[in-house]
């Protein structure tokens, strides 16, 4: 990343936002909650950068059952922030400066993510480059082939899940993520067996959302190990690094941290101890793209794998996460499929066009910034 990004000055910043409900195609059931729609807060930042008036867009979308904050709490915090003295002067993306400006609100990860993203998007538009270019430094960025996507499947009957994975993955080596932990062990194993039978080359990832005890997780891992599992995400609600180390050392399949990667300090400890095999990083829950990038860099040094994912966000947050991947293709840690296909889950979105999910990849536009103006802020529409 170019350090000049952190020193760019955003003068007289102004924030506005729009709360939008995005219905899902079908309800999604996990061990954490069942979702029928996503409520999101789309942000717009107006500021002067380098003598030029620019706009950038961000998103604050806490996920019920996952995030500690609610969308109403975030919106209330935004109202206070919009009228605070910090936003009457100037901002920079340097973490210490941005956190000082946000004050206590810097501890709300979805709010921090939204403000940071709006600033990054505005800066990329001011520089006339795609958002991905801000992360690449002097390294080339090629958006031609897009970001590889994993498919994600909820807790459907085994035969239905296997059929859907066969259609989406087939004989490729793309990743298929299966939710586990709510059905009986025999049902989960049958689902996995059928997927492996019909998709012999797929990278099968399992996500238990902390549904198991340690003993249950180890028994589950033993039962599914014959099916060549890529990794098992967060099977147990481990509270310490030592618990993660014990789980990883005893498990018959590789272990990934997901929920436990927030806050970033704990994710850093997981990396330093090499307590897991992989990390699933959600920039929305980590407080921004730049904190996520720091974890990617550390994981790269430690030889760990990283999957970038999202909280069923709108096109703003989802494509921003894809730009983060595209701008860091030099890292082996990011070599694989990422959890950014969720735009297909939404009946409606706030981008002018649906995601370009072609050939198992998310294609990004090479237009400046995120590549689009969110529909709530399109000409002729007022944001509240």
UniProtKB/TrEMBL annotation:
Gene Ontology BP annotations: amino acid catabolic process; glycolytic process; menaquinone biosynthetic process
EC number: 4.2.1.113
Free-text function comment from the UniProt entry: Converts 2-succinyl-6-hydroxy-2,4-cyclohexadiene-1-carboxylate (SHCHC) to 2-succinylbenzoate (OSB).
Metabolic or biological pathway, per its Swiss-Prot or TrEMBL entry: Carbohydrate degradation; glycolysis; pyruvate from D-glyceraldehyde 3-phosphate: step 4/5; Quinol/quinone metabolism; menaquinone biosynthesis; Quinol/quinone metabolism; 1,4-dihydroxy-2-naphthoate biosynthesis; 1,4-dihydroxy-2-naphthoate from chorismate: step 4/7
Listed name of the protein: o-succinylbenzoate synthase
Family under the similarity heading: Belongs to the mandelate racemase/muconate lactonizing enzyme family. MenC type 1 subfamily. Belongs to the enolase family.
Domain (Mandelate racemase/muconate lactonizing enzyme C-terminal) ranges: 158-254
Taxonomic source organism: Lujinxingia vulgaris
Record keywords, A-Z: Glycolysis, Isomerase, Lyase, Magnesium, Menaquinone biosynthesis, Metal-binding, Secreted
Record GO terms (molecular function): magnesium ion binding; O-succinylbenzoate synthase activity; racemase and epimerase activity
């Amino acid at each position: 990343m170019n350090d000049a990004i952190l020193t760019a000055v955003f003068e007289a910043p102004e924030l506005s936002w729009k709360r939008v409900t995005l219905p899902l195609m079908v309800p999604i059931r996990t061990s954490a909650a069942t979702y029928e729609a996503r409520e999101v807060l789309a942000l717009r930042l107006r500021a002067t950068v380098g003598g030029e008036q620019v706009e950038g867009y961000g998103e604050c979308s806490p996920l019920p059952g996952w995030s500690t904050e609610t969308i109403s709490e975030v919106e209330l915090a935004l109202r206070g922030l919009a009228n605070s003295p910090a936003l009457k002067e100037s901002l920079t993306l340097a973490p210490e400066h941005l956190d000082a400006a946000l004050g206590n609100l810097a501890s709300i990860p979805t709010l921090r993510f939204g403000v940071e993203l709006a600033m990054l998007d505005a800066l990329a538009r001011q520089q006339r480059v795609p958002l991905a270019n801000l992360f690449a430094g002097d390294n080339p960025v090629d958006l031609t082939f897009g970001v590889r996507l994993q498919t994600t499947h909820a807790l459907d009957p085994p035969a239905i899940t296997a059929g859907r994975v066969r259609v989406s993955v087939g004989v490729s080596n793309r990743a298929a993520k299966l939710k586990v932990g709510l059905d009986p062990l025999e049902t989960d194993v049958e689902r996995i067996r059928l997927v492996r039978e019909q998709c012999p080359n797929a990278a099968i990832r399992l996500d238990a959302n902390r549904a198991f005890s340690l003993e249950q997780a180890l028994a589950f891992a033993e039962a599914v190990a014959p099916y060549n599992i890529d990794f098992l995400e967060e099977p147990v609600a481990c509270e310490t690094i030592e618990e993660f180390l014990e789980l990883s050392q005893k498990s018959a399949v590789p272990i990934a941290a997901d929920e436990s990667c927030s806050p970033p300090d704990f994710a850093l400890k997981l990396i330093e101890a090499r307590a897991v095999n992989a990390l699933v990083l959600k920039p929305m829950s980590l407080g921004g793209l730049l904190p996520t990038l720091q974890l990617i860099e550390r994981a790269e040094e430690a030889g760990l794998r990283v999957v970038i994912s999202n909280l069923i966000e709108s096109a703003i947050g989802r494509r921003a996460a894809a730009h983060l991947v595209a701008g860091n293709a030099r890292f082996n840690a990011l070599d694989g499929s990422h959890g950014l296909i969720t735009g297909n889950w939404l009946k409606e979105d706030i981008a002018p066009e649906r995601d370009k999910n072609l050939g198992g990849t998310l294609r990004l536009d090479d237009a400046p910034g995120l590549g689009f103006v969110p529909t709530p802020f399109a000409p002729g529409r007022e944001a509240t």
